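Running this now, will post back.
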Amino acid sequence: MSISTTVYIWVASSAVWLPLMWFIIRHPRLHARLRPWLLTIVVLSMAASVAITDVMSDDALRYRWDGHVVSQGMNPYVASPADPSMQRLAVTDTVNGIRYPDAVTYPHIRTIYPPGAQLLAGMVTRIAGVQVLPWKVVWFIIVAALVAAAIGLLWRDVPRVTILLGVLLCPTVVLHGFVDVHFDTVMALFVLLALIAMERKALFTAGMLFGIAVSVKYVVVLLLPFLLMSLPWRDRLRVAAAAVVALATITLPFASASMFDAFRSFATTWQSNAFLYSALVQAVPEPGIRYILAGIGMALGGVVLMQQWRRPLVAGTLIYLTLFIVSPVVHPWYLITPLLIAPFTLLRASVVWGATVSLYGFAYLAYKGDGVWVEDTVTLALQVVPVVAAFAYDVVRGPVSGAAPDA
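Update: finished.
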C-alpha cells in the first residue's frame, strides 16, 4: 500500500471513527450489545495489521538494530550505529535487502529508547532475527497478549471494556500501534494493566507494571505522582517502591554514562507537528521558543491542578496532554497512551486528538515526496484548535462518564 493511500485512508477513517466513538460514549445502554461486535472488529483489524509493516515510520529500523545489538550481548548506549566499532555487528535482512546498521535512521545519534524498550527489542530479535515480517509477528504476539489481558480483566466491567474496544479501533492506534510498531503501544498497555491492578488493590503488581511502563518510555513517569495521590500514604510507598524496584532491575544492566546523550539532541533541536512552536518560532527564534513553550506548559499545568486536583488521574492525564500541546515534537503515536487509558479517564481532548492527528499524514506525505519537512500552519490549526477547545472543556468539566451520557 502506498503512503498516499495510507494517509487518505487514515484521514477518512478517522472522520468516521470520531462520531462512532462519540456514539459509543453517549449511549451506555447499548454497551452490552455493542461489546461483542466491537471485539470482533478489534480482532479482525489487529489480525489484518500483522502482515503490513513499516508504513509511516522508520522507527522499526532502529528497533531491529538495537535489538540485534542487545541480542549480541552489547550495550546499545555505548556507540551510535555509525560508529566504526559497530560494523562488526553488521547484519543483513536478505529477504528485504536491508543492511544494518546502514539503514538505521539518524545513525550518528545513539539510541534514545530506554532500557525496557531495549530489553523488549532484544528479546524479539533473539527469537525472530532482523527480518521484517518474523520480527513483526513476534512483536505482535506480545502486543496481542497484553491487549487480550486488558480486555479479559475488564470484560465484566461493561462500560470500561466498551470504551477500551472503541479506542482500540481508533485509526491512529491501529496504524501506529499495530501496523507500525512503536514502543508507546507496549508502554500504554502496561499503564492500563497497572490501573486495572491498582483498582483491584493489587498494589505491588500495579507498581511493578508501572515501573515496567516507565522503563519502556520515560515520559509516562509524569502520571506516577497522580496515581499515588489517590492512595493512603502507606499504599503510596508500596506502589512507588515496587515501581522503583522494577525500573532499577531493568535499567541497571544497561547503565552507561551515555544513556541520555540522545535526549539532549531531541530536547534542543527536534521539531515536528507542533502548532504552538510553528506559530511562535518566527517571533521567538531558537532556543528562546523552547523556554517560552515550557513556561506556557507550566502555566497550563497550574490551571489543570487548580481545577482538577480532586481527580488525580484526570489531572495527570490532562498534564500529560499539556506536554504535547506545548511540545515542539508531537508524533501521532504519542496519543496512544491517553487513548488506551480512556477506560479510567475518558477525556474529550484525547478522543478528538486521536482523530485530528491524522492530518499529520499530509506533512509526512510531502516529506516523503521531496525530503523536506514543511508544515502547513492551517493544517496544524485544524488539527490542534479543536483539541485545545476540548482540552479547555475537560479542564473545567472533568472527564466524560463512561457509564452515563455527557450532559
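The longest strand covers residues 91-93. More later if anyone needs it.
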